[in-house]
Amino acid sequence: MATFIQTLSLRTRLRAALVLMLAVLVAVLLLLADSIIERGFLVVEEREVAERVTQVTNALENGLLGLQRTTIDYAQWDDTYAFVGDEDPAFIETNFVDSTFIYNALACVIMVNAEGDIVYAAWFDLAEETFVDPPPELTSFTGPYATLLQHRSVDAGIKGFLLLEDGPLLLAAQPIVTSLGEGPPAGTLLMGRWLDEAEVARLAELTRLDFAVYQPDAAALPDELQPLAAGATAEKPFIQIVDAQRILGATLLPNLSGTAGIVVALDLPRDVYQLGQTALRNYTLVLLATALLFGALVLVVIERTVLRRTIRLSQQVAAIGPHAPTVRVEALGRDEVGQLAAAINQMLQRLAAYQTQVAENERRYRQLIELLPDAIIVHDGRTVRYINSVGARMLGNGLPATLIGQPVAPVVGGLTPRPDGTPVIQEAALRCANGETIEAELVALPFSDHDTPATQVIVRNITERKQVEQTLRAAKEAADAANRAKSQFLATMSHELRTPLTAIIGYAELLEQSLDVAEPTEMRQDLGRIRNAGVHLLALINDVLDLSKIEAGHMQTKPSTLNVSQLLETVVATVRPLAQNNGNQLLVQHDIGLGEMFTDAMRLRQMLLNLLSNACKFTHEGRVTLEVRVLPAEAPDVPERLTFAVHDTGIGIAPDQIQRLFQDFVQIDASSTRKYGGTGLGLALSQRLAQLLGGAITVTSEPEVGSTFTLTVPRQTTTLGEAAPLVPLVPTALAPPSLGDLPGGESRIILIIDDDPAIRDLLPRVLAQTGLHFEAAASGEEGLDLAAALLPDLILLDVLLPGMTGWDVLQQLKSDPDTEAIPVLMLTIAQDTANGFMLGATNILSKPVEVERLATEVALVLHGQPTAQRLLLVEDDPDIRAYLRRTLVQGGWSVDEAEDGPTALKLLEQQAPALAIVDLMLPGMDGITLIAAMRTHPHGAELPILVVTAKDLALAEQEQLNQSVEQVMRKGSFRGDELLRSVRALLQRRTER
Considering Cα of 57, then 59, then 63, then 65, what sign does the dihedral take? Predict the structure, then answer.
């Protein structure tokens, strides 16, 4: 076929191509027109049918609304309300006569009292205008019909269809209340009418549409409506084309009893479709006529402007040959054909010039081949056909001419390109003519030597490169070994780094608290710097160690069962001070009943703290929200997950910076680093920890609007609850004692020292309770005089006072033997809280202080502190043991110390402590063995145990500790106040049990 087409003339092929293109174009346009026009008319037809179905449905709905209004009218009569209670027959005889049913078009009226008993039921035949027997289904309201008597409120009624044995019934049910709409409902009033032929005829006349009503299981239901009866397309009007003349439109109306409803169907003529078919036929005729006319015109134009001139140009080009190289074609105008003739003439001129240039290039190519440092050899598999000077020196006597026709070297001759012409590259040891053996790279290429197939081989000396590669490989292996050694060093040094840092931080904190006012301020600041630097250094070391473990593949997760709600309370309580420092509101939203998770509690808490801390740090005077949701399992390989989304209204992140967030040691930009600080490890470490737990962290953000960081992690249990409202988070605490519940009915004196008259007036009013007497002083001097004279039970002291500051007043109070025992609550906007505690303040509250917080602190002071309890401390390091003992003593407990396991067991024999604090790395008997031995002792079976250790626990050790101790704290990751809070919480939990 292709050969036959090539034998045809250009004129014939153009005509055939034009006819074929016009035929294809007309066919495509006809197909498109048929598809577009017919689809458009079908859409219009379906829309019209849907509108007719909706019109009938609205008419039925209006009928239900009218029935409901009648029911509401009767249900809100005071007489109806009274009848349900006393069943006075005069009410029925007066209000429910034949005319009532005929006027309101009612088929039934039923009254049911609040106990579910029918107190009145009447069924009326509107056609015969006489009362009839009720259908058996509605002689009682039990089973599926019990829902007709259930209402959400006194004004909430029910309306709809009931599919009974006698046919569909339009029914409205309304609670019976007083005329003022007040409850409780005395019962339920039900009114209904049959959706029979008379009702259908009335609605058909009203809508001017003929429609039919079918029961889904009726034998008269057309076959076309069977899918609708099965409920497959009940969400929208059902449309079914019957033939070219008819189309069905229907809908399925639900039943109040919960079973299948009724089918409302319309049989309509297809006028719109017939109009579309007529338009399509007219379009086809016009298109065919236009195509024929257009084809004829195009053929005439092509013949006159292209074909004749092209044939003439072809004849002139054929006359040019090797015997007439100077012949040129004739210019045939200035259009494209004329430009083609000029281009042919220019091509002939360039060909003559190229022939001269090719000869010159050949000479240059041979010179270049001779100057290359690589050997080039052309062979036919047996003998050398060509060799350059480098090749002759490498394989022979240095003269290329003497090697032509000689047998090719086996290493070179055995290398040939692949059959498809692809070059072959190979490295081999090649022995040179001078006896030297070199490392060579050989490349074999296909070559044509005077139309004879041959192979061109390029030989490159790579001996020096191989030596360099060997040196680089050795250097890389040494670098990899050094990197592995670094990771191993960091992993093994974790315990040795954390233990001394714990002592540094602890002793700096104790020394700072023990300094009195006489010590130099500079020394106290230096000690504070030591503690802060130690805390910061420890955080950096922990992050780097964790990151190193992940990179080295040594990070182990330690899963355990945890309560999600308790974890949220702990995390929020930790982050709340940071949020308050920046004036942020901390909110939470979570599913009710979050249940438990089986995951690494420490790592999950670490990630949440990092995300919340970042949100609080980059948000000022805004809102930070923690939203926890449960994602149900989607597939066997996608289990149930929990998402922890942290939303903030902070500075936001630019889109081009989001991709850099999770890189190690990277901040979002230089300005944020200077303003907010940080190492850039937090998010990178959190992302890797999330991946270790089988989850991930994603982020969405908009500059100046805020950011959302979402942590998604899987869990094993399934607990899905309802969404809780968004409320401000408050830390969980015990309810404060009542201020008025004072022991023995004693009267207590509270002295207020504040220069603000509004505060002196406000505090007695908000704290006023029976048994409390308030005195006020406007200056420090006046406060000292009143304190010495009254000896109050409590002093509320402002810091910023005129003349003598609050710190000076506190110092004098604590230096006077008569007033040193008086508890003092400091009220201040200053940040130097440590100074107040060292001077002897009971507590320091930041202004503006919440009334509830102040009342709680006052109540705790007036009701006294709990009696001291005995604690058992087991720690082998004397410095750490002394730091922990002094911290616990300051918290109000007595401490028994043990440096090893046997000593601890002896102390346990002597007296049962309230709580034990145990290190795991002990001489002789390790901490886990000691805990197991304590659990077998009568004094240790129910003893709360708090583990304080610097050891990185293995998974088995973590699981064992989870079953035997209450809490594990890692050395260097907590401060003294955090230790005291944990001890108080464990003792409180034991007391509650």
Answer: positive
Residue 521 vs residues 518, 528, 529, 814, 835: alpha-carbon distances, Å: 9, 11, 12, 19, 10
- Tokens matching residue 639: 């289990």
CA count, 13 A, side-chain hemisphere, 739 = 21
Which of 555, 661, 563, 553 has its CA nearest to residue 610? 661
What is d(CA 390, CA 393) in angstroms, rounded to the nearest whole number?
5
The one-letter amino acid at 716? Q
**Which pair of structure tokens corresponds to residue 511?**
């020394």
For 864-900, the pLDDT digits (tens) are 544 457 899 999 888 888 888 887 887 678 889 999 9
Class of domain 372-462: alpha beta
* pTM of this prediction exceeds 0.85: no
What's the token pair of residue 37? 């026009």
Q: Does domain 748-863 have CATH number 3.40.1190.10?
A: no
Cβ(887)–Cβ(510) under 8 Å?
Answer: yes
| Spatial separation of the C-alpha atoms in residues 258 and 458, rounded to whole Å | 88
Which residues are 970's β-sheet partners? 949
> Do the domains at 58-200 and 372-462 have one common CATH topology?
yes
Q: Which CATH number fits domain 870-992: 3.90.180.10, 3.40.1550.10, 3.40.50.2300, 3.10.450.50?
A: 3.40.50.2300
CA distance 417 to 992: 88
Crossing angle (nearest 10°) for helices 308-318 and 336-371: 40
CATH dotted code for 476-547: 1.10.287
Q: Which of 262, 170, 251 is nearest to 220 (CA)?
A: 262
Q: Under 8 Å CB-to-CB from 91, ≥6 apart: which residues? A: 79, 80, 82, 83
Tokens of residue 721, six digits: 């609850």
Question: Of how many residues is the chain composed?
Answer: 993
Domain definitions of the chain by residue range: 1-44+273-312, 58-200, 372-462, 476-547, 558-714, 748-863, 870-992
**CATH number listed for the domain at residues 58-200:** 3.30.450.220
Nearest to 171 by CA among 270, 293, 35, 65: 65
| CATH fold for the domain made of 558-714 | Heat Shock Protein 90 (3.30.565)
Counts of helices then strands in the chain (DSSP H, E): 31, 33
Q: Which of 768, 743, 611 is nearest to 683 (CA)?
A: 611
Q: Read off the pLDDT of residues 312-344 as tens digits, 9 standing for 90 and up.
A: 777 777 777 655 556 777 766 677 777 777 787
